[in-house]
Amino acid sequence: MRIIAFVLFAAFSAFVQAKTKVACIGDSITFGYGLANRTVEAYPSRLQALLDERFPGKFEVRNFGSSGRGIYLDSMRGREKRGFRWMKEHKQAVEWRPDIVICNLGINDAGEYIKEFTGGRKRGQFVRDYCALLDDYKKAKLYIWTKLSPLAPGQKFYRSADPFLMQRDLDFVASKMGATGIDMQEPLRAVMDEVLSMDKIHPDAKGAQIIAEATFKALFDVKRCERERAERISLDVSAAEWWICAGQSNMQKGWGEFNRTPAEKRRVKNELERLSKVKINFWDFNSGKWERLTDKNALAKSAFGVSFAIRRAEKTKKTVNILYVAAGGAPTESFLSESRMCEVDSKGEFLYPALAAIATNRHSLEKNSDFPCSWVAREYPRRKNNKEEAFWWPVSRMYDMGIKEIAKMRFPVTGVLWYQGESNATTCISPDRPTPRAYQAETLRAVIDELRGGKNIPFVMVGLPSMNRPWERYREVQREVCAEKGAVFVDTFAAGLGEMNDVHPRNKIPFAELAACAVHN
């Protein structure tokens, strides 16, 4: 009996002390190509050091990288197959039975991937082959690079659509396989001149350290875990409307900022009284949390969005849930995924040439000539440490932090309320002049499709109001694109709304009433 007890205790002790096995699979970046001492300097080795420092003896990391490998099973590298699933490193990793798998693959599929859009491959092959690869790692917790390491100027596929179009499929793979996505583009972009200097694609030892730190953060993202654990208020999906309220400062500013003069105080008091008689829930992309709006917390919320929601709730007798994604100064490009900006036609040509130029040349956006709105390009580097505004200005930032999260939650979105345009209408330099018309039209077409998320739902675009700015042509483009895309254009200028010397009209109620009346159902 004692012998049996001892054996069981030994087995239990061995189980408790077993290390968590982390397999890093991928291409030459994982392998450590070009590093002087890859066994020490490659990112898996750096990750091991970070884990040992924080959790001594708890993790074992192994490098299963193989240079030149990709996802497609039928792709060739010379006379051998390129797909990582064919490699001995894949077999070794599977046989090791890891607890965690971290995968970076896709960059070597550039040039092949575009064929899924031009007819050379069947659409969906990349997703199927990637899912088949990950499915081999039974019971492992999966992490994949959903935004690949950036390509530096001078690299073969720099300015190519492939890595950016690929992001949408990488996100889909992550969702389908229950994997966590890792963004390796953002951590490396600011320093890519320095860390990708060897051949414009492979990181040096410093770059490998950055990759390891980004991976470590993804493994132990406390903020993300807290968000996932956050309690949500009870949401009645069937008996409610769900409105995405997106835009810049005129969507962002709360009633508390328009509550100074006696007239403003009466106006706000009346709005809050109306709010008390309906039910409105508010999701803030900054925190990822829901809250029921009251006369106290509503003052800090979107004045325009809340007033619109009050009127919808009164009309429909339903709960209105606001999905809020707004930040002062944010250009339209911030609300667009890079995949959307880089969409191509059947010939592989960009549907949005101006947007594609911005998305594929993020190297020094404030210095190059690809960004037509020179005000944002100029102001971003000056204000980039201002977390209240310019933090949200970079391309795709509002998409990644808000629009993408809404898509993940799969809420039955009723419609989109869009109040943005000041940052995209003019260059905002002296003399103030309009940005190119084609660019303006591209941004509006793209954002309507992006925020609709492939659904035929109402899109209400609030036109720029009266002000001493040359916004006439932008209003014309807004009207034309809305007609083309079946969206609703709210002509605030024709209604006589706005203030000549203030970009932020203080009375949001007439704007909200126009927008609410424009929704006919």
Provide an overview of this structure:
By secondary structure, the protein is an alpha/beta fold. The chain has two domains: 17-220, 3-Layer(aba) Sandwich (Rossmann fold); 232-521, SGNH hydrolase (Rossmann fold, 3-Layer(aba) Sandwich). The protein is built from 23 helices and 14 strands. Helix 21 packs across helix 22. The longest helix is centred in the N-terminal third of the chain and has 16 residues, at 2-17. It is globular.
What characterizes the major β-sheet? 7 strands, mixed
Which stretches are low in confidence, meaning pLDDT under 50 for 5 or more residues running? Answer: 1-16, 225-231
Helix segment tally: 23
CATH architecture of the largest domain: 3-Layer(aba) Sandwich
CATH topology of the largest domain: Rossmann fold
Number of domains: 2
